[in-house]
Amino acid sequence: MIKEILSVFQSNSLMERAFEQSYEMLDITNEMFKVAKKVLRESDSNKFEYDINEQDSKINKFQREVRKDVFNHLAMSGTEELSSGMVLASIVIDLERIGDFTKNIVEIAQNHPQRLHAGDFEDELITLERAVEDIFGRTIYCFKNSDEKAAFNLLKEYKWMSKAFDAKIQSLMRGEDTAITTGGAVALAIYLRALKRIFAHLRNVISSVVNPFYRIGFKPKKKKKKQD
Q1: Least buried of 61, 186, 195, 225, by fewest C-beta within 10 Å?
Q2: What is the pLDDT of residue 228?
Q3: Taking CA 36 as the corner, what is the angle to CA 31 and CA 40, rounded to the nearest 5 degrees?
Q4: CB contact at 8 A, 39 and 191
Q5: What CATH number should be reported for the domain holding residue 114?
Q6: Which domain holds residue 52?
Q7: 62 touches 22 (CB < 8 A)
Q8: How many domains does the chain have?
Q9: Domain contains 224
Q10: Is residue 228 part of a domain?
Q11: DSSP assigned state of 81
């Protein structure tokens, strides 16, 4: 879908700016996530040299500007390009939400006295974290390059993640790892929930590369084979 939008809007300065800002939103949220995760999981200090709130304010500003540019473009062009404009407006909402969930991770780091360790779940949590990091980087590539094949493969490769997040959160609620303190279990559950939501919003962005507006967030439909 993104490829079609770009072909429609390539000569329009408003929409060109909107796309450039959405690209920047992706880059900023990716950096926010990396910093927040590093402080929470790799440091015994809750000090942030990187101003997360300032970056989040940028994300919010970009979201408003993109929606304004899309609206102004559609007001001038009519309903012919309505679906395309709605796709971009939908994407920036997902990017803004990623920023919000990253701030949730920051709040965990600021209130958890030491590096967050997952006890018996540590290896599994590392696997999930690395998966989110990989998805983030590849989502940026797919979106910026309108690479439908790469986007489709990415959606297929990581379709297991939602169930994996749910399994870990449910295990924490059942208290299966008795070595984890109450505070640690609460922090882990909130962290896993934030990671799951970041993944879900990234999945929406990925799906916009291959899906029309009404199917954003859902798995792509298989294309029917042409009969001879």
Answers
A1: 225
A2: 44
A3: 150
A4: no
A5: 1.20.58.220
A6: 2-215
A7: yes
A8: 1
A9: no
A10: no
A11: G
